[in-house]
Design a protein that fits this description.
Helices cover 23% and strands 23% of the residues. With 53 residues, the protein is α+β, with helices and mostly antiparallel strands. A 3-stranded mixed sheet has the order 2-1-3, with no helix packed on it. The radius of gyration is 12 Å and the shape is globular. The protein contains 1 helix and 3 strands; from the N terminus they run βαββ.
Amino acid sequence: MTIFVTDLSALGELRSVLVDVYGDHRPASSLVEVQKLFHPDLKNEIEATLTLI
């Protein structure tokens, strides 16, 4: 999972959401700060790849 954020000061809120969704089983992820996303209203974008075995 790759998470793109426009403001690292909101990292605590993001982590709280991830804990609520995934609990103690959060997937491997990368966090990237970007200047902006494709729409000015967006603050976060999550890109995920899922493999079913």
